[in-house]
Amino acid sequence: MIRRVLVCLLTLGLVACATPPQPSTPAAPAASSKPKSPAGQTPAEGSVERVADLPAGVPPQEDFATARAAFIRDTAARFSIDPMYIDAVLAQAQFRDDVIALMSRPAERVKPWSEYRPNFITTTRIDGGRAFLARHREALTREEQTQGVPAEIIVAIIGVETSYGGYIGKHRVLDALYTLAFRYPRSGKPERAAYEYRREQFFRDELAQLFALGREEKLDITTLIGSYAGAMGMGQFMPSSYREFAVDGDGDGRRDLYNSVDDVFASVANYFRKKGGERGGWVPGAPVVARAELQPGFAEFNPDTWTPDYTLAQLAERGYRPLEPVAADATATLVSLEGSAGKQYWLGFQNYYAITRYNNSKMYAMAVYQLSQAIAGREIPPA
Fold it and tell me: Which intervals hold domain Transglycosylase SLT (predicted)?
């Protein structure tokens, strides 16, 4: 959950709406359970967020025994957890070659919007979303009224991430995080050394956060199943996001993102409202995007980030004009997409930025938004 730097692996086939999970003990599927991906589908693996940039230079790589001992010591002190317990749990963890292979895959060709969107928005996915919304309308409406995040946005996120809870991943979270925390794949390229070091440190922190989460929620962390990057539950929250943003939506004293749809809906909505730092999160009742056009004679503008920092006047100076009514005091970012009939230009407002906090991708955010509109029965433009 959830600022990602992993590319969403959504070479999706037809997606069926899953039967709502039933409460069980423990709170998550046991490690022996093997949830299977629907044919032809890969989930939106790993809601992986960035870690802060480190000073120039990469520390020498520690040997495993030293790194493991330091992890136990630091995690025990940081979260007041018995170091013997941490050691005993780590003794059960396994290094997974398949996790390394998945994390090491070469980046795929960046698809244009006209090819990217069909992976998300299909008749099956829309119908599944409508059925899921109808089945849980009362709980979703309650969250919409309480937190101001539309029900269809919550449903669309769950649909994209886990096929409405039908596929949460197949890796033991402990193994995935253990592997990436201590054996993050190294390319050997000097220009990537700092990035790879930061990634390993990120996953090492998430492994520590998993121990804290297990203590707080009384979870057996050796049984939790998720993505190869360690994301968990119907909304694919990393351990740190689970701890920070998960909400007890059903009032049972627990935050269960595997079995309680009330907790899942409340947590996804809470994430939208609160994830965004100083910039802020979802604004109830505010727009997400608006179509725009680029006037002849102007060069295309491609912002480096998706923060909506530009006034309409500043965008007009760059040649962009909204094609639908927009509040005069609105600020936006500019989103350019390669559509099937040529370039598409959109103004992305604060709520568009809020969607990118789930995945830092302009196409992901637009796909989630348009899927939500289709689920709600509204017309969406061609890809």
Answer: 64-373
